[in-house]
Amino acid sequence: MQFIEEDKINEIRNSADIVSIISDYIPLKMQGKNYFGKCPFHDDHTPSMSVSKERQLFKCFVCNKGGNVFTFVKDYENISFMEAVKKVADKVGIPLQYTETKKTVSKYQKEYEIMDFASKIFQNNLNSKEGIKAKEYLKERSINEEIIKEFQIGLALPDNTYLYNVLTKKKYDINKLEELGLINKDGLTGYDKFVNRIMIPITNLNGEVVGFTGRIFNGEDSAKYVNTKETIIYKKGNIIFNYYNAKKYIHESKCAIIVEGNMDAIRMHSSGIKNVLALMGTVITKEQIEILKKLRVPIILMLDNDNAGEMATLNVGDELIKNNLEVRVVRLKGAKDPDEYIVKFGIEAFQDTIKHSIDFFDYKLLQLKENKNLNNTDELINYIKSVLKMLDNSDNLTKEITLKKLSKEYDIDYEILKQEINFDNKNKPLIIKKDITLSKKDKYTTCVNYLLYYLMSDKKYLKMFNSKLGYLKNPLERYLITEIEYYIKKYGKINLADFLSYAESDDKIREFVNNISGIVEIEELDDREFLDYLNATIKLLEQDDINKIKEKINNSIDINEQIENINKQIAIHKKMMDVKKEV
Length: 583
Known about the structure:
Blueprint: E1 2-3, H1 6-15, H2 18-23, E2 29-31, E3 34-37, E4 49-52, E5 57-60, E6 66-67, H3 69-77, H4 81-92, E7 99-100, H5 109-126, H6 132-140, H7 145-150, E8 154-156, H8 162-169, H9 174-179, E9 183-186, E10 189-192, E11 197-203, E12 209-215, E13 225-227, H10 243-253, E14 256-259, H11 262-270, E15 276-278, H12 286-295, E16 299-301, H13 307-322, E17 327-329, H14 338-345, H15 347-355, E18 358-359, H16 360-369, H17 377-390, H18 396-410, H19 414-419, H20 440-455, H21 460-468, H22 475-491, H23 496-503, H24 510-519, H25 527-555, H26 559-582
Parallel strand pairs: 14-15, 14-16, 16-17
Antiparallel strand pairs: 1-7, 2-3, 3-4, 4-5, 5-6, 8-11, 9-10, 11-12, 12-13, 17-18
Helix pairs in contact: 1-4, 1-23, 3-4, 14-15, 20-24, 20-25, 21-25, 25-26
């Protein structure tokens, strides 16, 4: 695990202009003294994310995502905090030296070790004399040595006990080898699951080998592909092939191309199109959708050019659209899949198909038109009704544009079409404004969030806080204050942009601090506003104390105890009146 000193992190953040860095990812436009852009962390149709050059912070007023430059890069690229620091350091030209800390041991360390060792055996096989024919086959598919190394492609030998013998000599448990899908048991012995096949490792999101796809290359076996069965470390629905390798290229190209097969992905990668992922089938799972959502880029579906691929394009596209992903479609004409298309028509023609991808909604319209005679009134009516039904879950802008197209193309009155569907405001951004007329519990939380925001923004507010109050009700709030005090003592100052970086190393407060920075809305630090929230918090805490004392008075039968509690109640009331005078 990599470690970077806090001072170095602060130096990098202070050298990085958040407006410049975020502009590399999304367009920003200046409005007043801040910059605004469409938030990449939710389905944003209007610029609702504000970026402050002065305070070096960003905030979305709809989804409440906020933070500093590292937070943005980390969440946008779905990488670790330290990886985000490294990326920003590279952008501003600051060299980094890492200190290695103790590596975390995985729960399934032995399983990963076995799969990695098996992968290395397959790679060695490919480089042996038995691998000559397999390499010739790969060369014919334009997969050169560089690509073979990058994808760790190997070979399962014709000898169906070779892998079994090597692994058992290493003292790996035969039952575990079977559980991982590497061998089939036969009594007390076993034989290899993969025989005489080109072996393509399947890695998880962290790049660890969890399974294999074995492909025939000499036509001797009827099954074109044999895949690892699901195991304790390999759940097909949780994996997207080539994700680990393609992630950086996806962010650079600002889109991800999804194909069906592993070989399609490898073939495209070898042709220079490296932002490609493979589903390893025609179905997409909710776990895979979540992985794609974290990439925060448009998706181009390029599934096989057959009936199954056509149905999959519609089904997968619908699921992605439901999850607010931008989807485009490429249907390859004259070839079954990307691999065949590149071989037949060349890479330039293939790249041209990508440039001319169409919006998923337009693709669905084309599908609805297929095999219909739209000069026939009944078929035209059915087509129009199908389109209107399809618009049910669309945003108002899509509805408006589509209705106008239909009206113009088929000479139908726009108002008649509009009557057939419902326009709503569900896609308008909801701006949540500060509101102190809440329940006492919510009011306390709101006041404390604003107080803590101020305390993390300037050391003078800690002095004001300690002189008038000095404590808060909840343990996590108190813990955060001790961390703020420690930070100020160490650095002599504090600002939210730097403290957000500091909080990343503390599991106890990381989420709490990030949540506060996202929820709280402050354009400028204002001493009077801070005092308003401080006094409101004092009154809420004192009212809470009064309620507890009242409960004690009501439950007590000791007259002296009752008198003592009444005096406490009077003292708190007096203190509250003093606070009101100050306000």
